[in-house]
């Protein structure tokens, strides 16, 4: 019981309460669809037309950003100063039928100017 408390406390400090509730599982254990709908995790493609990996959100532009969902995800990303939206390039979520697939999902990254500062 004590061990679980300290794990919960550590995860709260690392991820924040909202991230923990949203993630519900360690990013690496999430499926593709869970990952793109999470604010605490991001789906990333390791190489062009390569494998997808679900990892923890990094940096202020990724935290709180969902790679898929309702609303204008580009506006939500770019509402944060210094963040730029990179649209998905032929990415197809596993719950949809698409004309193309195998590309990277949408990303919210720090702009090059913000990264230099």
Salient structural properties:
single chain, 117 residues, alpha+beta, two-stranded antiparallel sheet, 4 strands, 15% strand, globular, disordered N terminus
Verbal overview:
This protein is of the alpha+beta class and 117 residues long. It has one domain (12-116). The protein is 36% helix and 15% strand. A hairpin with a 6-residue loop joins strand 1 (41-45) and strand 2. The radius of gyration is 15 Å and the shape is globular. The N and C termini lie far apart (44 Å). Mean pLDDT is 82; it is low at 2-24.
How is the topology of this model organized?
Layout: H1 2-23, H2 32-36, E1 41-45, E2 52-56, H3 59-62, H4 73-78, E3 83-86, E4 107-110, H5 112-116
Antiparallel strand pairs: 1-2, 3-4
Choose one word for the global shape.
Answer: globular
The percentage of residues in β strands lies in 15-25%
Structural class of the helix and strand makeup?
alpha+beta
CA gyration radius, whole angstroms: 15 Å
Total count of domains? 1
Number of strands: 4
For the largest beta sheet, what order do the strands appear in spatially?
1-2
Q: Mean pLDDT, rounded to whole units?
A: 82
User: What separation lies between the terminal Cα atoms?
Assistant: 44 Å
List low-confidence stretches. Answer: 2-24
| Helix content bin | 25-40%
Q: Tally the helices.
A: 5
Encode the helix/strand succession as letters. Answer: HHEEHHEEH
Biggest sheet statistics: 2 strands, antiparallel
């Amino acid at each position: 019981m004590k061990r679980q408390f300290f794990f919960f406390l550590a995860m709260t400090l690392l991820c924040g309460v909202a991230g923990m509730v949203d993630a519900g599982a360690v990013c690496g254990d999430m499926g593709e669809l869970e990952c793109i709908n999470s604010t605490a995790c991001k789906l990333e493609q390791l190489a062009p037309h390569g494998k997808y990996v679900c990892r923890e959100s990094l940096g202020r532009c990724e935290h709180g950003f969902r790679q898929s969902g309702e609303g204008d995800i580009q506006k939500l990303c770019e509402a944060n100063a210094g963040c730029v939206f990179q649209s998905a390039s032929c990415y197809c979520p596993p719950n949809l039928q698409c004309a193309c697939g195998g590309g990277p999902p949408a990303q919210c990254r720090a702009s090059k100017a913000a990264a230099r500062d």
